Amino acid sequence: MSKVLFFKMPSSGHVNPTLGLVDALVKQGEEVIYFCSADYRERIEKSGAIFKNYDDKSILLENKHNVSGIVNIDDKLNYINEGLSSSEEIIQYILNQIKDIKFDYIIQSSMFPFGNIISQILKIPSINSFAIFAPSKDIIKDQDQLKNHPAIDNYKKISNKISRLYNIKMPTNMMDLFFSKGDLNIVYTSKYFISHIENYDDSFIFIGPSIYDSILFQLNN
């Protein structure tokens, strides 16, 4: 039996597609420890996972600040810049929560900013779950807007500090922190609905929509 460390952004669009996967893993004998916000505790526990709560002080993980829901690029960058200062705190918080547990692999939201960092620290494989079917370059159309924003310099300082502290490699591009790629990548659609399939290599598996009984129950009640 393997132990699976699960990280998800606290959003229905990120959590709901994974519940069927969690249910299948648990039925196969895997032990899944799932980090999310308290709003999703009941549905996560119904899928068979062990629930753990994020530190609510981290702005990068608060549902109301979910970067995927922010349309204006300046607002995105301001939000990221504000939240970067809590990066070291939330990484250490998670490490403290799991310090006595040996995991075999991580499954995370592609937009969860710390999953690949933690997988490097723990030296275990990462599997990324894609709720948004586009790379960062397609979501942020004008890359020139990134160049002069204070978040860029702030990210360089913080990423250098985290790299030295944990002896890991941080993404060069700040936005890759929120659109990360794992050793294996799961996409909840068919490849026939992807407009630029050339952006996806052989590490991507298109498994189609995730339909799970507990989700349907919640939607009907």
Write structural notes for this entry:
The protein has helices spanning 12-27, 41-46, 73-84, 87-97, 115-122, 136-139, 150-166, 213-219, and strands spanning 3-7, 31-36, 50-53, 105-109, 126-130, 184-187, 204-206. By secondary structure, it is an alpha/beta fold. The chain has a single domain, classed as Rossmann fold (3-Layer(aba) Sandwich). The chain has a seven-stranded parallel β-sheet with strand order 3-2-1-4-5-6-7. The protein is globular, with a radius of gyration of 17 Å. 31% of the residues are buried.
Secondary structure: elements and pairs:
Blueprint: E1 3-7, H1 12-27, E2 31-36, H2 41-46, E3 50-53, H3 73-84, H4 87-97, E4 105-109, H5 115-122, E5 126-130, H6 136-139, H7 150-166, E6 184-187, E7 204-206, H8 213-219
Parallel strand pairs: 1-2, 1-4, 2-3, 4-5, 5-6, 6-7
User: Secondary-structure element sequence?
Assistant: EHEHEHHEHEHHEEH
Mean pLDDT: 81
User: How many structural domains?
Assistant: 1
Distance between the termini: 35 Å
Large-scale geometry: globular
Give a count of the beta strands, DSSP E runs of length 2 or more.
Answer: 7
* CATH level-1 class: Alpha Beta
Task: Based on the coordinates given, report the CATH architecture.
Answer: 3-Layer(aba) Sandwich
Structural class, by secondary structure, is alpha/beta
The helical percent reads 25-40%
Major beta-sheet overview: 7 strands, parallel
Strand order of the largest sheet: 3-2-1-4-5-6-7
The CATH topology comes to Rossmann fold
Low-confidence stretches: 63-68, 214-221
Whole-angstrom Rg? 17 Å
The CATH superfamily is known as: Glycogen Phosphorylase B
Strand content: 5-15%
What is the tally of helical segments?
8
